[in-house]
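Work through this protein:
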Amino acid sequence: MVEHVLTASAERDFQVAIQATIDIGALLLAESATKVPESYKDVLLALGQIGVLPLDFAKKIAPMAQFRNVLVHLYLEIDLRKVYFYL
């Protein structure tokens, strides 16, 4: 039971952290008069392109936007090793 609670907490908290990063990024892009991309991944890449994030870092974390989709929509297919690796 405790393991399930810890796993569920890790998944949910990671999902919220990713979503907050994307939401804040979209706001920053809008404030900078930069077109807000349609994909979550491209929001993070755009932050690197305008200098809000170091470009190499933005490229490194951009796939987490796709992992957010796994957490939200493909929750039955979540590989816990990936959750802990990404965290």
Notes: The two ends are 22 Å apart (CA to CA).
